[in-house]
UniProtKB/TrEMBL annotation:
<feature type="domain" description="THIF-type NAD/FAD binding fold">
    <location>
        <begin position="9"/>
        <end position="242"/>
    </location>
</feature>
<dbReference type="GO" id="GO:0016779">
    <property type="term" value="F:nucleotidyltransferase activity"/>
</dbReference>
<dbReference type="InterPro" id="IPR045886">
    <property type="entry name" value="ThiF/MoeB/HesA"/>
</dbReference>
<dbReference type="GO" id="GO:0005829">
    <property type="term" value="C:cytosol"/>
</dbReference>
<dbReference type="GO" id="GO:0004792">
    <property type="term" value="F:thiosulfate-cyanide sulfurtransferase activity"/>
</dbReference>
<comment type="similarity">
    <text>Belongs to the HesA/MoeB/ThiF family.</text>
</comment>
<dbReference type="InterPro" id="IPR035985">
    <property type="entry name" value="Ubiquitin-activating_enz"/>
</dbReference>
<dbReference type="GO" id="GO:0008146">
    <property type="term" value="F:sulfotransferase activity"/>
</dbReference>
<protein>
    <submittedName>
        <fullName>Thiamin (Thiazole moiety) biosynthesis protein</fullName>
    </submittedName>
</protein>
<dbReference type="InterPro" id="IPR000594">
    <property type="entry name" value="ThiF_NAD_FAD-bd"/>
</dbReference>
<dbReference type="Pfam" id="PF00899">
    <property type="entry name" value="ThiF"/>
</dbReference>
<dbReference type="GO" id="GO:0008641">
    <property type="term" value="F:ubiquitin-like modifier activating enzyme activity"/>
</dbReference>
Length: 253
């Protein structure tokens, strides 16, 4: 860490929970962000600013005018361009010291496994159920930590799943993969709501990467933007889960 690094990260280095060791761990870390929309925008900005060494940015979409009310990583001049490429350019302007890998194609069940195995942690900032299930399966198979966020209307959800998945996984929480789709295009969303969830995804990622425990591990956080309130539910692992049910827990025979 040189003098420039000390200045750039000085305020978080002052935190005894982070200090030099935690910052060093952040700089060595590799995080995959799937989806660079309303959730991925603030998450990517904060992870880049915090000095996470390598960010893999996955999104096959192009920026649309309707995105700008909540996807704060972009500018009007970016309309029509690749989100992943424009995100990379903006994040490099924010912190040129980090490495950014652009994944400009859709991550499928087949290619997710290859991408996930090379990272330390995954942020699911996607906006559709099939992708969420595929990300969950890939993380379980590779024994990676998953931080999943979602938002619709005035409401948001935040979920932290860590090995050995004592409290289950996304498929335990939502076993029905045929739920009718409900997304921003069909139901709308308020920008600051996705901002809250995306920012907290980054917060939990930074804590975990720096060696701190996540208070949300194995819990589902439910945010009500109208009341500005939170509820937290403890997850329970399903022994019948086809994704994580086969993983033996400590003490199990």
């Amino acid at each position: 860490m040189d003098d420039s690094d000390f200045l750039r990260y000085s305020r978080q280095l002052m935190l005894e929970e982070i200090n030099y060791q935690g910052q060093h761990q952040l700089q060595r870390a590799h995080v995959l962000i799937v989806g660079l929309g309303g959730l991925g925008s603030p998450a990517a900005l904060y992870l880049a600013a915090a000095g996470v060494g390598t960010l893999s940015l996955a999104d096959d979409d192009r920026l649309d005018l309707t995105n700008l009310s909540r996807q704060i990583l972009y500018r009007t001049a970016d309309i029509g361009q690749s989100k992943a490429k424009r995100a990379s350019a903006h994040l490099h302007q924010l912190n040129p010291q980090i490495t950014i890998r652009v994944i400009n194609n859709r991550l499928t069940e087949e290619n997710l496994a290859k991408v996930v195995k090379d990272v330390d942690l995954v942020l699911d900032c996607s906006d559709n159920l099939p992708t969420r299930y595929h990300i969950n399966s890939a993380c379980i198979s590779a024994q990676k930590t998953l931080i999943s966020g979602s938002a619709i209307g005035f409401n948001g959800q935040l979920l932290v799943i860590e090995p050995p998945y004592r409290y289950g996984c996304y498929a335990c929480l939502y076993p029905n993969q045929k739920i009718a789709p409900n997304n921003c295009r069909t139901a709308g969303v308020l920008g600051p709501v996705v901002g809250v969830i995306g920012t907290l995804q980054a917060l939990e990622a930074i804590k975990i990467l720096a060696g701190l425990p996540s208070a949300l591990s194995g819990k589902l956080g439910l945010f009500n933007g109208k009341k500005n309130s939170w509820r937290h539910l403890q997850l329970n692992r399903s022994t019948h889960c086809a994704v994580c049910g086969v993983i033996k827990q400590p003490g199990e025979k």
